[in-house]
Design a protein that fits this description.
Helix content of chain A: over 70%
Strand order of the largest sheet of chain B: 1-2-3-4-5
Number of strands of chain A: 0
Number of strands of chain B: 9
Strand content of chain A: under 5%
CATH architecture of the largest domain in chain B: 2-Layer Sandwich
Number of helices of chain B: 3
Largest sheet of chain B: 5 strands, antiparallel
Radius of gyration of chain B: 19 Å
CATH class of chain A: Mainly Alpha
Largest sheet of chain A: none
Number of domains of chain B: 2
Structural class of chain A: mainly alpha
Number of domains of chain A: 1
CATH superfamily of the largest domain in chain B: Regulator of K+ conductance, C-terminal domain
Helix content of chain B: 25-40%
Number of helices of chain A: 15
Order of helices and strands of chain B: EEEEEHEHEEEH
Oligomer: heterodimer
Structural class of chain B: alpha+beta
Shape of chain A: globular
CATH architecture of chain A: Up-down Bundle
Distance between the termini of chain A: 65 Å
CATH topology of the largest domain in chain B: Alpha-Beta Plaits
């Protein structure tokens, strides 16, 4: 069979299969990311069926998937929200960063993966999944809760921290010297600051340049701009993903909302491809050997997120049940942990076990996070040995 | 009265009132304009007992109901000593036959013996509307009459085209 035909057939099988997995995820109310990873594992090297034919398309599709994931992350918050969040919650953000990077660092060092592995694992355990968390908060009807702004503020800061972390990671993975790394970080921090301040004052100009009443040309302009900026950033040795992220921040107001609307299906498509490819490149036979570590890491890093949320909520004068809710809401990890692991694996600077560990870890956390958020309240009630609350008043 | 406004980054904004009894009532407005009514729980003021998504039409109607309570209680007090007469509010729904037509066209007085004494529109009160007043979808008609008359009036105003 000629290679194009084979690729078409295999891509068809993959997308069709992912469609079913996505539907299944929706049915049981969970994020589709872990199922996509499982799908990739099943089809990859050493899996049930070997799908070698999609890697040509898959490679560039996965790159675009990462760019779109980060672009959408940038679109999610306005520059104003980022600046306000930074000003009001930087301390909570710092606690979050320290507490949740530590477990990853510790595991990497204990397994002998060296400083590069430690930096990668730090990012994997640090980044909560804002996608999963925002959805869970909405589904559980917690948008009106007092602890919800605390949770969202932490997500905003994590978002900003990505702009600092990704360039460092890219520089380190590229194997540049300490000086080169510091230069990359300095450049990216300067760029982030300029973009943030610029977006506050001139965001409307970027938005106006991209805006178009015609959906089709708008889509092409936004996507083109994202790929251009990502490519430029990549050429400057700053991460491509960060470029897209900063563009997302610079786009504001109604344009940002429209961009989110038109890009969402594309993001879903390419990001799914990225997760599958990550699964494909993970050898499922390595998973049993890292399962124990992944479980321990899951327990510890769940505890550190709960501690973060608890502490941040207590500072805002929120009572014990609310503190527990805030903590449990933050547990879910997902797309960004895989993005970080994906960058590391692509650079080839980390052992194969890291990909397997990251996959297993995200599988656990993306499933356990929403479950924990849902059932934390009865657990707190039980621990405090109080009678169950009166049934909600007729409202 | 103090309305507390809390931005919800990535979602929208929450505006709420702290009530005299310690509970919170408010609205979460999503970025896409979708509104959600929230009511805090009695045993845990940080949490919500309910968060109810409302359509634009429903929020407008609820706002008018609440804004109208003062007017209604005033009207009710005035009619207290007239036996058999009550005041009702009837919503002119989108798609009602009379949305976009004048009050006179309803022939309300002739058909049911009731009077439309006021129209509540987007928080404003149009008192003693004249027969040439045009009704709009979302208007809340304040009607005075007997119970039977009011039931008939509701049927007329809410009939679809």
């Amino acid at each position: 069979m000629d290679p194009t035909t084979l690729s078409l057939l295999q891509l068809g099988v993959v997308f069709f299969g992912l469609g079913f997995l996505g539907r299944l995820a929706g049915r049981i109310g969970m994020s589709p990311v872990p199922l996509y990873l499982l799908g990739g594992l099943a089809f990859g090297h050493g899996g049930l069926v070997d799908l070698g034919g999609i890697e040509g398309f898959g490679h560039i599709a996965a790159e675009i998937g990462v760019i779109l994931l980060l672009l959408m992350l940038g679109l999610e918050y306005t520059a104003q929200e980022l600046v306000t969040g930074l000003r009001q919650s930087w301390l909570a953000g710092l606690v979050d960063l320290v507490l949740n990077m530590l477990p990853g660092v510790a595991v990497a060092l204990l397994l002998g993966w060296g400083p590069v592995g430690a930096l990668v694992m730090a990012g994997i355990t640090y980044s909560s999944s804002s996608g999963i968390i925002a959805k869970v908060l909405g589904d559980l009807g917690r948008l009106g809760n007092r602890e919800t702004p605390v949770v969202l503020a932490i997500l905003v800061i994590e978002d900003l921290a990505m702009a600092g972390y990704l360039p460092i990671l890219t520089a380190v993975l590229a194997g540049v010297s300490l000086l080169g790394g510091l230069t990359a970080v300095a450049i990216s921090l300067a760029v982030v600051t300029v973009v943030l301040l610029g977006a506050l004052k001139f965001g409307h100009i970027v938005s106006a340049a991209l805006d178009s009443p015609d959906r089709e040309s708008f889509l092409l302009k936004v996507l083109g701009a994202a790929l251009l900026v990502a490519g430029l950033a990549s050429a400057m040795q700053v991460s491509a993903a960060v470029g897209a992220f900063l563009l997302g921040i610079a786009i504001s107001g109604g344009t940002a909302q429209n961009a989110q609307r038109v890009l969402e299906p594309l993001r879903d498509l390419f990001a799914a491809m990225f997760f599958v490819l990550f699964g494909l490149n993970t050898d499922p036979r390595v998973i049993p050997s890292v399962l124990g570590v992944a479980l321990i890491l899951a327990v510890v890093s769940a505890a550190t997120k709960v501690a973060t949320g608890w502490w941040a909520a207590r500072r805002q004068g929120i009572a014990v049940p609310g503190r527990a809710r805030a903590g449990a809401a933050l547990i879910a990890r997902g797309e960004f942990s895989i993005v970080i692991a994906g960058l590391a694996v692509a650079a080839g600077r980390v052992p194969a076990e890291l990909a397997a560990l990251a996959t297993t870890y995200v599988l656990i956390m993306a499933v356990f996070g929403p479950v924990a958020a849902r059932y934390v309240e009865p657990v707190v009630q039980l621990v405090r040995r109080r009678p169950a609350p009166l049934p909600a008043e007729t409202v | 009265m103090n309305i507390e406004e809390t931005p919800l980054p990535g979602i929208g904004v929450r505006r709420e009132l702290l009530l005299g009894n310690g509970r919170r009532v408010g609205v979460v407005t999503h970025r896409d304009g979708q509104a959600e009514l929230i009511v805090s729980r009695a045993d845990d003021p940080d949490a919500c007992a309910a968060s109810i998504p409302l359509s634009a039409e429903e929020s407008a109607a609820l706002g008018q109901l609440l804004g109208a309570t003062q007017l209604i209680s005033q009207l009710a007090a005035e009619q207290e000593n007239i036996a058999g007469v009550t005041t009702h509010q009837i919503l002119v729904r989108a798609g009602s036959r009379f949305a976009g037509r004048t009050l006179g066209e309803t022939h309300m007085r002739t058909r049911t013996g009731t009077s439309i004494v006021a129209l509540l529109r987007e928080g404003d009160v149009i008192g003693s509307p004249r027969p040439d007043q045009v009704l709009e979808a979302g208007d809340m008609a304040v009607i005075v009459g007997t119970d039977e008359g009011l039931a008939e009036a509701a049927v007329i105003l809410q009939a679809r085209t």
